[in-house]
């Protein structure tokens, strides 16, 4: 009897993720649950550094409130060196999670909290690992596939290049989501 109870509890536990996915979304098709976004990011000046980036995210709704995404960011760092304005550039790859803080089905406004981690790849001028947290605001428009968004966040970049300090600062985020 005890082994049947354990097997029943195990089966119930394993079936919960399958039933919890997309419970409040209308469609369970893959094409209706992916999300793409393209946006820009500008950050405050810190230790003489200013940062700007073009960001592309591709994600998938695990359930109605949680999105897992992959991120590609083209980053430009502006700084003054010996009273001469110069820059470094690079490409970062990574991923993150986005959590809807309001009900995404019934609320007219979307408020998302995004966490991301990216790492420089290729022949980047500045090797770094970047950690970000953002609060994103947009409108919930179920009949529209293109939705603009705005947000504020915080970014910390751990430098792996000698002579370049770590970067931390507030960020402004804007873009469109498909």
Q: What keywords describe this structure?
A:
8 strands; mainly beta; 178 residues; disordered N terminus; eight-stranded antiparallel barrel
Q: Care to give the gist of this entry?
A:
The chain is mainly beta. 13% of the residues lie in helices and 59% in strands. The longest helix has 19 residues.
* Mean pLDDT metric: 81
Which class do the helix and strand fractions yield?
mainly beta
Order of helices and strands: HHEEEEEEEE
* Order of neighbouring strands in the sheet with most strands: 1-2-3-4-5-6-7-8
Q: Report the sheet with the most strands, covering strand number, pairing sense and barrel closure.
A: 8 strands, antiparallel, barrel
Q: Helical segment tally?
A: 2
Low-confidence stretches: 1-24
> How much helix, percentage-wise, in residues?
10-25%
The total strand number stands at: 8
**What is the radius of gyration computed over CA atoms, rounded to a whole number of angstroms?**
20 Å
| Distance N to C terminus | 52 Å
Give your account of this protein's structure.
By secondary structure, the protein is mostly beta strands. The chain is built from two helices and eight strands. Strands 1-2-3-4-5-6-7-8 form an eight-stranded antiparallel barrel. The radius of gyration is 20 Å and the shape is elongated.
